[in-house]
Amino acid sequence: xxxxxxxxxxxxxxxxxxxxxxxxxxxxxxxxxxxxxxxxxxxxxxxxxxxxxxxxxxxxxxxxxxxxxxxxxxxxxxxxxxxxxxxxxxxxxxxxxxxxxxxxxxxxxxxxxxxxxxxxxxxxxxxxxxxxxxxxxxxxxxxxxxxxxxxxxxxxxxxxxxxxxxxxxxxxxxxxxxxxxxxxxxxxxxxxxxxxxxxxxxxxxxxxxxxxxxxxxxxxxxxxxxxxxxxxxxxxxxxxxx
Length: 242
Fold this sequence. Notes:
Elements (H helix, E strand, L loop, with lengths): L7 H26 L5 H6 L2 H22 L15 H15 L5 H11 L4 H6 L5 H33 L4 H14 L10 H9 L2 H13 L4 H16 L8
């Protein structure tokens, strides 16, 4: 992968969703071999840790890829101190306006597909042992912040544009994949759930992609916001821990 810089951005574009499917499938196979009933459903319960494992692999790959290019992965998280105060104030304003893009599609799609938006919770917030929930409370959000936006908008998007792709397409492809990848978090054989997960974050993904195309230096701030959002979400698993 590292030996062909032209193909690497394309491989990383699909790497995360491929890892989500693959790790869940391996876990389901393990449950099946252990004689556990409904092995695929059982594997879906572990999706926060599946995503965490995929994130760690992505971070490892990004470190290697940036190093092969003569750069450093961690440099994308450096704060531009000269513009820090202005950047924070602008982002606060932008998220007051754009923040609802991360919430309302979730609710509206849930209501349209399931008639009751709350019906998605039982499919999405799945039971885990307490130790797994507490691990997820830390590793899931932190690894998401370090892997998701950096993969799509810190690496793939600028490499697409540098390779000559039109900027609209260079933003759109990573944004679409950022949204679509959620259909494998977890993957269930339920078309309504697949559609809900695949489409719910598309508007917010484009919002983030446009912001980071305009101001790449905002990546560390958006990554931090992403960690906080996922940390808040991860607390919901406490209600179903056993």
